[in-house]
Amino acid sequence: MQSPEASTAATPTQIHLALAALADEVVGTLARLFAYVGALVLFAILALAALDRLPSLRDDEPAEKPGWSVADRSQPAFALSWLDSSEKTASYVILRHPEGGRRDVMRWTGEADKPVAELEIYREGSEFDVALPATADLAVHMGLGEATPLEQAGLIDTKFGPVALFQPTGTAEGARACLGYLKRSEEPALQISGFSCQGDTLPARRAAIACTLNRLTLLTSGNEPKLAELFAHAELKRRSCAPQGSSDWLLGAANAQLRGSL
Which of 40, 58, 90, 145 gives 20 to 30 Å between its CA and that of 235? Predict the structure, then answer.
C-alpha cells in the first residue's frame, strides 16, 4: 500500500512530464510551421526567377518585326505636275521601314475627296520579299478587295520604258474601271506603281497613266547615284503628254499578248 507521501511526491513528476510533452509539441509545431513557410518562400523565389528568365527565353524566338511607319521629317524626293488644274493638290506621304525601305506615295482626289489616282515610288530595302507577287498590294491600293484577282491589260510606253497595266479580272470591254500599273527596276532596286481612274475610255485612261509617269521628276536622289542615273536617262526619252485617247502612247503589238489572270 502506497503511502500518502509517495502519492504526493509523484504529482510534480507527472507535471514535469506533461510540461515536457507540451514543450515538445510546441517545438514540433513551430518547426513544421517554419518548414512550411520556408517552402512557400522557396517556391516564391523559384517563381520570380522563372519570370525573370522569361524575357531571355523569348529572345530565342523570332520576334515580330516592326513594319512601315510615316516619316514626317523626311523631305519629298519626287514631284509631278498636272495639266488639269481642277485636280486637288496631291497629298504626299513618306513611309520608311526599319530595314531600309522607303515609299513615296502621292495621291490625288476629285469630287467628294474620292481618290482618282495614286503614284508610289518604292525604294526597296532588306524587307523586300522576292517571293511576294509584285501586284500583291495593287488591288488594295485601287480600292478593291485584297483577294480581288487582277489581269494584265497591256503595256504603255513611257520614259521609263514599257509599263504593265492591270485591271480586275473579267472587266468587260468598254467598262469604266480604274487601271493599275507597275514598273520594276533591278538596278537600282526600285518599283513604280499606282492606279488611275481618269478618262472616260480605256485609251484615255492609258494615256493618263503614261502622261503621269512622263511628268514624274526626281528632286533629290538621297546619295543614291544609280537613282539619279535612272532618272537622267529617262529624261532623255521624255515626251510631252499626247491628247488623251491617242494611240501614240500604246504598244499595240504587245498588248494582245498580255491579257490573262495573275
Answer: 90
